[in-house]
Amino acid sequence: MRRAMILLMLPAIVLAMSSCDRKDKEEDKKAGRLTIAVIPKATMHIFWKSVEAGAKKAGKELDVEVIWKGPLREDDREDQIKVVDDMITRGVSGIVLAPLDDAALRGPVSEAMRARIPVVIFDSGLKGEAGKDYVSFVATDNEKGGLLGGQELGRALKGEGKAVMLRYSVGHASTTNREVGFLKAMKEFPKIEVVSSNQYAGTTAESAYTAAERLLEPLKTADGLTIQGIFCPNESSAFGMLRALQDGKVAGKVTYVAFDASPKLIDGLKKGHIHALVVQNPVYMGYMGVKTMVRHLRGEKVNTRIDTGVAVVTQANMDEPKIKELLYPELDKWLK
């Protein structure tokens, strides 16, 4: 009889415990004790380490817990979707996401929003409408960045010559927009012929190195290349191209504009192997991603689009204080 009574009471006990859990979460949110999951495209590039530093800086300033978790590689859509699903199950206060694919991540984001877990998109766009399908989009104006890179290349070539672009990977809105911006800039220089713009680097520096070698091989001459300009739209494609130019003994013999900054790319700029770097502010991007989410959760109005800035860096301006902050961010202070 007693056992039967306990069995009858179990559903009520479970319901009461569930209700208490919900109340605890609601009270935690009211008290400002928030848990923000920051999910990057990958965790292995310097760019993402910089984003992590900015996110953790914001977490410390705002007194919220920041969970940093993402796939190892920028082509592992399934793993990133799993991370999003895990964070929904965990019941985090909010998700700050850099989607690996502007279409594939739309479903998981919708699921999070339906579960009343708001999502801020950062770095790379997602199909849908900011303010409706997700809270806000925090990112570089990537098309503008590509445009600036193309204009810098055009000026350096004095408006004449041949150029190539090594694309990054299909489905990444950020790099696609940079590529669009670069090609728009090339239209401003009708005497510059883009002889190749349909080859892809892939998502790692190694795949980019292989793709760059394949692109450059038919363009080689006895003492250089048949082209005068090169553009690459992100850190891994840029480094793969730099290695291919250096190994082929043609670095510095072609005007090369790359996107993003890392110690090796900065070294290439110093040596004259890279003419210019189009540089984002990933620390600020991570910082504003978390800050925007916390403001939203605390009932403050947030902008649906936040531009985190972009700059063109050359040997001429790389020692300016503001540029040095972009090239040499204090990561260790926040990643310890």
Keywords:
Rossmann fold; 12 helices; six-stranded mixed beta sheet; disordered N terminus; alpha/beta; 336 residues
Write structural notes for this entry.
The protein has about 325 residues and is an alpha/beta fold. The chain folds into 2 domains: about 35-140 and about 280-310, Response regulator (Rossmann fold), CATH 3.40.50.2300; about 140-280, Rossmann fold (3-Layer(aba) Sandwich), CATH 3.40.50.2300. Helix content is about 45%, strand content about 15%. The protein has helices at about 1-30, 45-60, 75-90, 105-115, 140-155, 175-185, 205-215, 235-245, 265-270, 280-295, 320-325, 330-335; strands at about 35-40, 65-70, 95, 120, 135-140, 160-165, 190-200, 230, 255-260, 275-280, 305, 310-315. The longest helix is centred in the first third of the chain and has 29 residues, at about 1-30. It is elongated. Residues about 1-30 have low confidence and may be disordered.
Task: Give the secondary structure arrangement, pairings included.
Blueprint: H1 2-30, E1 35-39, H2 46-62, E2 65-68, H3 77-90, E3 94-97, H4 106-114, E4 119-122, E5 136-139, H5 142-156, E6 161-167, H6 173-186, E7 192-200, H7 205-216, E8 229-232, H8 235-247, E9 255-259, H9 263-271, E10 276-279, H10 282-297, E11 305-307, E12 311-313, H11 321-327, H12 332-335
Parallel strand pairs: 1-2, 1-3, 3-4, 4-5, 5-11, 6-7, 6-8, 8-9, 9-10
Antiparallel strand pairs: 10-12
